[in-house]
Amino acid sequence: MGTPLESREAQAEEVLDRLYEEYPDTTISLSYSNRLELLIAVMLSAQCTDERVNKVTAELFEKYDDAADYAAADQEELADDISSITYYNNKAKYIRSACADIIEKHDGEVPDTMSALTDLAGVGRKTANVVLQHGHDIVEGIVVDTHVQRLSRRLGLTEEEYPERIEEDLMPVVPERDWQQFTHLFISHGRAVCDARNPDCDACVLEDLCPSSKRDHDVDLASGEAW
């Protein structure tokens, strides 16, 4: 029966324990070799699969070496280089603008603070968190992507709807030591079992403590809609 534990803290701890055992080697799935490549890959990944991004950046990172290359790139040419990515025209503009600022304001280096990163075009808190965690080894928040957004609501860890509110709500509940892996574990579980449209509750290691389990409940807490 899908019955959550009494407190959100206890629920989060048990969820983490089980997911660590289920996905012991989970980590970021984007391919990159330096901080700028990481930043660009994460910018491209918005509303796009990591698999698609990795295919595009395999050639993109061969063509452009540094922030100066991107800033000087022709808009149409860069957009064409990433044309299989969602919203490629806007993302090309953001990349060019962000790289111009990196050169002008940060000596060509990807900045290492939340405020400086989110000042860059096309960079929100989620992207900044990823860059800080994997580019600078700075963990000051929880990356809330679509998987974290969906699973944290399904599991009764939050009732908030929007990413920044979800992050704010989860940070006191999830132990700080687990903030980085929390995201990777939820992404792995979301891809493998708990997808958006048809989660496989029968195969889920969290089913017995999930208040959205299709075995026992009529409503998907992620969407608020009936199964």
Automatic annotation (TrEMBL):
<dbReference type="InterPro" id="IPR023170">
    <property type="entry name" value="HhH_base_excis_C"/>
</dbReference>
<dbReference type="GO" id="GO:0140078">
    <property type="term" value="F:class I DNA-(apurinic or apyrimidinic site) endonuclease activity"/>
</dbReference>
<keyword id="KW-0479">Metal-binding</keyword>
<feature type="domain" description="HhH-GPD">
    <location>
        <begin position="44"/>
        <end position="192"/>
    </location>
</feature>
<feature type="binding site">
    <location>
        <position position="210"/>
    </location>
    <ligand>
        <name>[4Fe-4S] cluster</name>
    </ligand>
</feature>
<feature type="binding site">
    <location>
        <position position="194"/>
    </location>
    <ligand>
        <name>[4Fe-4S] cluster</name>
    </ligand>
</feature>
<dbReference type="GO" id="GO:0003677">
    <property type="term" value="F:DNA binding"/>
</dbReference>
<keyword id="KW-0456">Lyase</keyword>
<feature type="binding site">
    <location>
        <position position="201"/>
    </location>
    <ligand>
        <name>[4Fe-4S] cluster</name>
    </ligand>
</feature>
<feature type="binding site">
    <location>
        <position position="204"/>
    </location>
    <ligand>
        <name>[4Fe-4S] cluster</name>
    </ligand>
</feature>
<keyword id="KW-0004">4Fe-4S</keyword>
<dbReference type="GO" id="GO:0046872">
    <property type="term" value="F:metal ion binding"/>
</dbReference>
<dbReference type="InterPro" id="IPR003651">
    <property type="entry name" value="Endonuclease3_FeS-loop_motif"/>
</dbReference>
<keyword id="KW-0234">DNA repair</keyword>
<keyword id="KW-0411">Iron-sulfur</keyword>
<dbReference type="GO" id="GO:0051539">
    <property type="term" value="F:4 iron, 4 sulfur cluster binding"/>
</dbReference>
<keyword id="KW-0238">DNA-binding</keyword>
<dbReference type="InterPro" id="IPR011257">
    <property type="entry name" value="DNA_glycosylase"/>
</dbReference>
<dbReference type="Pfam" id="PF10576">
    <property type="entry name" value="EndIII_4Fe-2S"/>
</dbReference>
<dbReference type="Pfam" id="PF00633">
    <property type="entry name" value="HHH"/>
</dbReference>
<keyword id="KW-0378">Hydrolase</keyword>
<comment type="similarity">
    <text>Belongs to the Nth/MutY family.</text>
</comment>
<keyword id="KW-0255">Endonuclease</keyword>
<keyword id="KW-0227">DNA damage</keyword>
<comment type="function">
    <text>DNA repair enzyme that has both DNA N-glycosylase activity and AP-lyase activity. The DNA N-glycosylase activity releases various damaged pyrimidines from DNA by cleaving the N-glycosidic bond, leaving an AP (apurinic/apyrimidinic) site. The AP-lyase activity cleaves the phosphodiester bond 3' to the AP site by a beta-elimination, leaving a 3'-terminal unsaturated sugar and a product with a terminal 5'-phosphate.</text>
</comment>
<dbReference type="InterPro" id="IPR000445">
    <property type="entry name" value="HhH_motif"/>
</dbReference>
<keyword id="KW-0540">Nuclease</keyword>
<keyword id="KW-0408">Iron</keyword>
<dbReference type="GO" id="GO:0006285">
    <property type="term" value="P:base-excision repair, AP site formation"/>
</dbReference>
<dbReference type="InterPro" id="IPR005759">
    <property type="entry name" value="Nth"/>
</dbReference>
<dbReference type="Pfam" id="PF00730">
    <property type="entry name" value="HhH-GPD"/>
</dbReference>
<dbReference type="InterPro" id="IPR003265">
    <property type="entry name" value="HhH-GPD_domain"/>
</dbReference>
<dbReference type="GO" id="GO:0141016">
    <property type="term" value="F:G/T mismatch-specific thymine-DNA glycosylase activity"/>
</dbReference>
<keyword id="KW-0326">Glycosidase</keyword>
<protein>
    <recommendedName>
        <fullName>Endonuclease III</fullName>
        <ecNumber>4.2.99.18</ecNumber>
    </recommendedName>
</protein>
